[in-house]
Amino acid sequence: MPSGALFDLGWIPRRRRPATARSVLAGEAAAEAARKSSQEAPPAEETPAEPEFPVVGDTAAAAFFDLDNTVMQGAALFHFGRGLYKRHFFHKRDLARFAWQQIYFRLAGSENPEHMADVRNSALSIVQGHRVAELMSIGEEIYDEYMAERVWPGTRALAQAHLDAGQKVWLVTAAPVETATIIARRLGLTGALGTVAESVGGVYTGKLVGEPLHGPAKAEAVRALAAGEGLDLSHCAAYSDSANDIPMLSLVGHPYAINPDSRLRKHAREQGWRLRDYRTGRKAAKIGIPAAAGVGALAGGAAAAVALQRRRR
Questions:
Q1: Which has the closest alpha carbon to 275: 168, 163, 155?
Q2: Are residues 88 and 262 in contact, defined by beta-carbon separation less than 8 angstroms?
Q3: Residue 68 designated active-site
Q4: Which of 176, 189, 205 lies closest to 68, judged by CA?
């Protein structure tokens, strides 16, 4: 069977050793088919690049950032309390309570509703009877003293990326709205959603308007703000460290778990959400020896209390 009847095989060199007619035909046919397929094959398609995000010029998009342990290390209320103690707003026993609340917050790595309620009541009792304008002015000083150096650079860069894309960026936190607004302004963000404390005639009453902006309340705040701002939540991004903020994260098209607690980390992986962790020594803190960590934290809190007491003298 002449192979040339099927293929133009002039390019194939002569055989140097015997082969059966069928093996010759099979081999020459395979070689010719390979040549043709390589010559006729379309150019390989390029892997599509990941879509740009944040999308520059998308006016329907915005970003929502939790505050505690997402934008800033620790709880804003604790740092605010330290500043108020320095200014003689309350006594050493109150500072010890604030220190213990901060220790619990850092060791637990998540927000417990009862614990958050305790923090809230402590803060309300301290500011009751004080003027809103006074606390705002003091809050500016406290930010410089205790909060500025605790902002996570990685999260700050994420917020800046949204700003550079022409999008609005909001803090969403259970901290008092006045404190949150100061932090947002100092970081160059658009504004803040926070817990609203009741005031009459510019003076705090020691009560809240509604409840703390926590868990589902954050999601409702984001939903309401998006409606008022004409945002498309499927274009928006949200960032948090806590499983308590899953309702808020689930609202948007681009949810991010930042420095996540164990529950949020697990949920984010199941949902395919993006994760970022800007902490150092996370495994040592979370998997290491809790007792030793507790002793260290207590020692740190005691040292802070002693230092503040010396300054007061």
A1: 155
A2: no
A3: yes
A4: 176
